[in-house]
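Journal club side-thread
Mid-discussion, someone asked how the predicted structure for our own chain would compare to the paper's figures. Pasting it here so we can look after the session.
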Amino acid sequence: MLSNYDKLIFEVSEVGRTGYRLPELDVECNIEEVIASEYLTKEELNFPEVSEFDVVRHYTNLSSKNYSLDQGIYPLGSCTMKYNPRINEDMAALNGFRNIHPMEDIEDVQGALRLMYELQKSLAEVAGMDHITLQPAAGAHGEYTGVSLIRAYHEKNGDTKRDKIIVPDSAHGTNPATAAMAGYKIVEIKSDKEGMVDLDALQAAVGDDTAGLMLTNPNTVGMSDKNIKDIVRIVHEAGGLCYYDGANLNAIMGHARPGDMGFDCVHYNLHKTMSTPHGGGGPGSGPVGCKEFLHEFLPVPVVSKKDDGTYFLDYDKKYTLGKVKDFYGHFAICVRAYTYILTMGRDGLKKASEVAVLNANYLQAILKEYYKLPLDRICKHEFVLAGLKGVMSEVNTLDIAKRILDKGFHAPTVYFPLIINEAIMIEPTETESKASLDAFANALIEIAKEAEEDPSILNEAPHNTPVSRPDETKAAKDTILVYVEPEK
């Protein structure tokens, strides 16, 4: 029998219970003068009737069922799920930031504008760019903005025949989707046996129809491409531009910069690299940086500084894309990112990437004794396994991921990148301690031994979660988004 706190909030409801009482209306008001009649209903609203205590217990119980970084490691490859320092939250909650409004007079929000201006400068320095827009709302939105800069550049030059974007086969799925949304055709480039861009294939693909290349370095298999300068040169010689996907920037902060590699524009994931909330804890933020020759296409406004030291919203971009988001981006996320950068400092950001790489290599060295490692060499911030050694005919990667849940950990990214069969992609980040890494590694070692001794343990996992193995295809296609009271 289910307890009250394993039920839906509607199932806890009892007629007559009240969690909150509004004061009696003490002014005369004709509701139809305030709200148009077509938006009003005469029907009784089907809200659950619960006490305040019921509500508190219900949602506290729900929150405890959700795994989070506050509970343990979140080793999603390609996602940089790292700890969000509480000082970031404290700064975003300051009254002058929390209660600010984007329509306030410029003279009254100089502190906020200064923060945005200095964040732009810091991000430009981190990636070797000249100009920044903070408008994009998340990583994929940043990609779209960056690719739109490339499109605007070619259109201004009358080079409209350039209708193709080159994307490696190891790219994040958002890259080809973004390029397609921006109106481009996609040209996929195969990786070589080392997981790098195949230079011969790239040379054969470029031409006078090449608008640009979308690439991240280190790449999705966790390796820095040793040919990055040649890759950029080949694209530039063909007249295309190079876009850097900043999803893996956490691996190189303070050590290498996309601008120095030759990239023309880049997006940052503040909700990854700069430790701001990620996913359901968002919203995200995907600022875009560019080189000087692209700045005239940036979305407006950007925050600029006058000679007298005051800040203003600069709309003076001759060939601007216009706005890509209302107002100026997700300001509270910018506050968190700026706090992180100030807290860490130049040396701290550099140290963060060093430890992220160290942690990944530590886990890789332990786990390769039990799991297949298709690219057995020093990695950067993440690495990709290819299932268990010896028993993959009976146990697949999904079985392993489901069994990890029984061990009390969130599963890593699985079946991505697509170029590695039975992929298990792990990124521990720099915020995990050696004890945390050891606990996670030991769980994966236990799973490897269970697979040898009794594969059915994995085949039937998870065993101790509220839901075992739902039909994920059915759940995606046949969603139930509203509560329907069961027939009595």
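Post-session note: The two ends are 18 Å apart (CA to CA).
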